[in-house]
Amino acid sequence: MKYNEEKVDEMTLALLYLVTWRSKGEDGERAWKGFAWETMDRLHQKGWISDPKGKAKSVVMSKKGLKKAEELFRRHFGLAEE
User: Fold this and answer.
1) pLDDT in tens, 5-38
2) Burial 39-75, CB ≥16 within 10 A → b, else e
3) How far does Cα 51 stand from its chain's mean position?
4) pLDDT grade for 81, boundaries at 50, 70 and 90
5) What Rg do the C-alpha atoms of the chain give, in angstroms?
6) Domains within the chain, CATH numbers bracketed
7) Within 13 Å, how many C-alpha atoms sit on residue 35's CB side?
8) What is the 3-state secondary structure (H, E, C) of 7-64?
9) pTM
10) CB distance 11 to 75 below 8 Å
11) For residues 61 and 66, what is the distance between their CA atoms, to the nearest angstrom?
12) In 10 A of CB 36, how many CB atoms?
């Protein structure tokens, strides 16, 4: 099936924001990498996450990627403030 890769990348990045955390002593937030490898590779190529290849079950979000992820998460999943 053909699909809009840009939209998939945006939704994946937004969902990565949902599962981010910062471990003690680490630089940057991490996120579980349980998404399609092709999508994770594209997010890495865009500079939003660290290289997903490897044994780690998570990736590091770049500062640019974390900011974009939060923006996308709020836009697509946030509730209107009352």
Assistant:
1) 999 999 999 999 999 998 766 677 899 989 999 9
2) bbebbbeeebbbebeeeeebbbbbeebbebbbebbee
3) 12
4) confident
5) 13
6) 5-77 (1.10.10)
7) 25
8) HHHHHHHHHHHHCEECCCCCCCCEEECCCCHHHHHHHHHCCCECCCCCCCCEEEECHH
9) 0.85
10) no
11) 6
12) 10
Among 25, 81, 28, 34, which residue's Cα sits nearest to residue 56? 34
Cβ 42 vs Cβ 77: under 8 Å: no
DSSP strand pairing (30-32 vs 20-21): antiparallel
The string of pLDDT tens digits covering residues 39-72 is: 999 999 999 999 999 899 999 999 999 999 999 9
Q: Please tell me the predicted confidence (pLDDT) of residue 23.
A: 73
Please tell me what DSSP assigns to residue 79. Answer: P
